[in-house]
Amino acid sequence: MTLFRRLFVAALVAGVLSGTAASVVQRVTTVPLILEAERYEVVTTSPPVAPTQLTPAAPAHAGHDGAGHAAHPAPVRELGEAVPETAEEAFQRLWLTVATNLLVGIGYALLVAGAMLLVRAPVDARRGLVWGLGGFIAFALAPATGLPPELPGMGGAELEARQIWWLAAAFCATAGLFAVAFARNRLVVAAGVVVAALPHLVGAPHPESAAGAVPPEMAARFAVLSLGTAALFWALLGSACGAMMQRVLGRPDEEA
């Protein structure tokens, strides 16, 4: 019971530290881009033109152009409803973002600390950084190669299909990294590499044509900043987990 309590405390400290750091970095990097992109998220259409409002010259084209505009009015971009307009709304979004990052950090820290406990390999802050690198590859970089981080207002395939593919990419990458890192049999290592590559060979779900209104340069900048923030998050999480789990599992030099 003491072991599990220490494990939870280690994950709690690592999760709070990494989640807080990620929240601060997101506030000055990705959040402004998200707010800007939400201006492209809500697209309304202008009201159809009634036949009685057509000009006298229009009837000659009413059967073609005039009726066409009425049935398919040009889209008009409007400010997204999710954009905070008051300080209270902005504060609510801020603390929800921080709370989400803390919960995600604690959850991932529990996974990493549990894996460290099961493997029973020596750990410290430096070795924890390597674990963090593995977490970044498995849960951020590998899925992002098929489905890059997306801004509001960007077109995409069905949400359920993207979620399933993301989970498959993360799970297969994790299995492949464990095989490469800990397997002693070459066949197992080769099988792990194949499993890690399988979701990418199948291909991530994408729409037939891009339908988003977000400028491409904004989307590219968001993807880069999101991956950079994820790298910082996982580096802190892994190092903190390693330092805390060193107390739980014992010092490396003591086990050597």
Automatic annotation (TrEMBL):
It comes from Azospirillum thermophilum. This is Cobalt transporter. Keywords: Membrane, Signal, Transmembrane, Transmembrane helix. The chain crosses the membrane at residues 94-119, 128-144, 164-182, 187-206, 218-237. The keyword Transmembrane helix applies. The lineage of its organism: Bacteria, Pseudomonadati, Pseudomonadota, Alphaproteobacteria, Rhodospirillales. Residues 46-55 have a biased composition (Polar residues). NCBIfam families: CbtA (TIGR02458). The keyword Membrane applies. InterPro entries: CbtA_put (IPR012666). Residues 46-73 are annotated as: Disordered. Residues 1-21 form the signal peptide.
